[in-house]
Structure formats: C-alpha cells, structure tokens
Amino acid sequence: MMRTDRYAHGRRPRLRRGLTAMILASMIPWGLGSPSSSNAGAAESAASAPADETPVAAPAEGQVILTPAPPTTAPTVPMAETAAPQAAADAVAGQDADTLEVLIIQALDQPTDLNVQEVPIRQALDQLAVNTGIPIRLAPGCVSFLPYGSQTKLTATIQKRPLRESLTALLRPLGLEFVAGPKEVTVQPAPPLARMGRRATWDELATLEKLLSQPMTPELFGTLRFQFQETGGEAVSNHERLGRAIGGVGEGIAAHVLDHACDSCGWTWYPEGQVVAVLSKTKYVRQQVNRRVSVRYAQASLVGALTDLANRAGVLLRFDPGVLNSLPAQTTERFSLSMENATVWQAFEVISGETGLTPVIEADGVRITRPGAGGTAGATTTSAGGPNTAQMETVAQATAAAMRSNSVVGQFTFPLPDGSSFAFFVRESDLPPELAAMRQAKIARTVNQIRQKLHSEQQQD
Predict the structure, then answer these.
(1) Beta pairing partners, 3
(2) Residue 14 half-sphere exposure, CB side, CA atoms within 13 Å?
(3) CA-CA-CA-CA torsion for 268, 270, 272, 276, nearest 10 degrees?
(4) Which of 97, 302, 340, 343 has the highest Cβ tally under 10 A?
(5) CA-CA distance, 11 to 7, in Å (whole number)?
(6) At the topology level of CATH, where does 2-23+61-193 sit?
C-alpha cells in the first residue's frame, strides 16, 4: 500500500477528489495496450478482486493511495537477490560504469519500501536511495520550481512497490520527473515546469499533473482553458488550429501530445494560473533572457562567458561562422565582466558594446552575429523587450560606456563558515567624495613616479 501527501509548514494543499481518483487509476500496472486508463477502469478492477482481499478505502482529500499490484511475470534480475540495501550498494560499487548503469535500470523495476512522515523532499529521496542502494540526486536548481522550495515536505508509505512506480508517484504531483543515468538517478523538473522559469503554485502543479497522467482526448481538450500569447491571429482561430494539430499527433499522454502539437505550430506551452499558456517560441526565449543573474567573469574565455549566460537563461546559444575571428585574442581569451542583479539580456548587451558582437533572439534561442550580417533564413529577430529596433546597438554601447566610466575600484571579501566566500565589488561612484579625491591623488603621484623613473632610465641610455 502506498500513500503520499505533500505540504509544508503544516499547510496541506487541497486536491480535487476527481484528480485523486485519476491518480489511483493511473498507478494500476499497465501493459502495452491503449493508455486510456480511467476511473471507471480502476473501479472495475477493484470490483473484480477476490472476495477474501481487504477492500481499499476511498482516498481522502489531499492523499494519493496506491494499492499493491498483483505479481508480474517480469524476469528476475540480480538486484532482486540482494539481501540488504548495503549489499546492493556494495555490488553497485564494484561494477564498471556500464554494469552500474544496467544495475540502476534493473533496480528501478525491483520492489522497495519507504516510510517517511512530513520530511523535506531531499531527505525523502535520500532515504529512498539508502533503502535501494541506488544514488538519487536532485538536479541543481530543481527545488527552486517547487511551491515551498527545499521545504516542500512529503509523507509516503510504500510497501513492495517497484522503485520506478514509487518515484513516479512521489514526483509527478510536484511536476518533477527522473532520468536513469550511468551512475545515478537524477530528479529534474518536467519540461513544462522548467519552461515556467519560476516557482509554481499548487494549482499550476495540479494542472500539470493532470496533463502528465491522462491521455489526450477530445473531452480533456475541451476542459482546458488556453491563453494565446503572440501566436498571431485570433484566439478562436488559434484554438481551432491547436485542436487540428493535436488531432494530427495521435494518441498519447496529454502533455506529450501538446508538446508535439505546439511545436508543429512554432509555439510552446506551460501552465499559468488557471490556464495553459500557449506562446510563440520567440516570446518564450525573450522571457528567458530577462531572468536576473549576478555574474563575475575574470580573465575568462568570451565563449565560456556567453555560454554560461545562455545556460543561466535556459536557452540555446549559436554562433555565426567565423564571428569571433575578427576579435583580438585579449578579448576572446581574457574577458572580464561583473554585473549584479542584471538580466541576462543586459549582460549580452554589455558584451555587445565591448566586443561589437550582436545578440539576436530567434525562435530556437540566441544567435551571436556581427552588425550587418543579416538574419538566418526564416528566422524572426527580436530584442528582449520586443521587436528589434535600430536603437538596440546604441543602447548596448551606452550601457558599456557607462560601466567603463564607473569602473570597479575595490572589493570586500567575507569568508563563510563552509569555507566559501562572498564578495562585494566597489565602484568609483560608491566612494565618498573625499576618499575618491584621495584615490585620484594617489594615482596621480604613482603615475608621476613611474614617469620620472622611466625618464631617468632613458637619460642613462
């Protein structure tokens, strides 16, 4: 039997009974047939159970109850013979990388137990990893998408359920998924949650869970409310176009069908409040590069700095052929930039002003080109604030000039208990007038001393 709750700080999110019943039905073991499991199917399975079995209680609001599945005919794998979690961990540690990956995949199909009560998600996953001997980790930044972050708590009772099924039941209500890698199982946001780029609400997670667990049907499509953003045309025509695209995809889980349908129209989607937001890919990229970051690159590779900024925004970065060849090695190999609480696009603009490179927003990401190079065939170019304008390059140059005129003149570094440190940069405008005057006088004296030294050496020559 398995029961999972999720809440934090004593606040239990409300779930609709229909949604709970849907989760119950979706967790019944499935084969290779049609993915059209329903509440009615779950009720029929329960009715056909032998009379001597204990009936399953109706799920209470805010709970997901999973009954044990009947024994399957899956072949036995070596992990099933392991007597204890520690023995499983020892067996895994002694294998090479390929064998470890196989053992992880096999372990996902083996029964496991878990009993946690109101523990943070990270602690619950750690306990599950201990019980199975399989490393399970949260991807960096994963908890930033959850309503209560790392304090999102779980209550779960799992008895003799496959690890794959148990992880799905734990993670799907939170909009998360897992990927089996060569060395560990990684928990990460599902693509629609990652596209939100912010902390989700419980209502948005409920919508996402429905789309991740139910097949796309005309009835489900009719219950969804869509909001179209910069998709062209009227909302009614866009709704009809999306419906035709969904019909052309065929059967499948609603979220996956919606992915393919939107992609065929040049759109993307994610839950937003009570609706499903459908937006052009260009608008999505523009939203991503408006994320705020604090960065510091000291004598770094220019390509590395640009790539890091794109990664922070979660967008693809492309370079026009030979675009960096015209830049001096000092710029491409020893690039420095420091910005606090700025958007990724502002950082791109500063780099543009310093190097002459031009960032262009397109449907598939950001392209780095040179002024006058022109756009790629079929591409739509925009700035982060909207359609591309002639002032974009002027703004970038003005921003870079402003930062050069107010350069960094000092730094405060504070050590932290864990051995790391936190640094604050001091710009020239941060100095009091008298201290700024003393600094300028000191620079002038030092320059004069250097001049005199060089002059005396020249006379000796």
Answers:
(1) 65, 157
(2) 1
(3) 70
(4) 302
(5) 6
(6) Phage tail protein beta-alpha-beta fold (3.55.50)
